[in-house]
Amino acid sequence: MLGRHVYRVSPLDSGRWSVSKEGETAPRGSHPTREAAAHHAWELAEADEPSKVVIEERGGAIADERLFGADTALELERSLAAEPVRPKREPPPRR
Predict the structure, then answer these.
(1) How many CA atoms, within 13 angstroms, populate the side-chain half-sphere of residue 56?
(2) E strand or H helix at 41, and its extent?
């Protein structure tokens, strides 16, 4: 997979906090506090680099976002943008 695996910490109606991985239907875990859920998400993200953890507030706003590992697709894009491709020979003249 190119790009980052995204783990999300979200509040549940029960007052607990859910850890889920985007693209999966079942949550990875449920925790009594946002901090406990965040630590679980960080452990999962460290083992699944490149990845990202997004932690939500109860109102839905993003409280924190952390990146883990190098994103090879992003690194490739940056290196290509930094080095312009030059033609090996001059283009033919316009007529």
Answers:
(1) 16
(2) helix 34-46
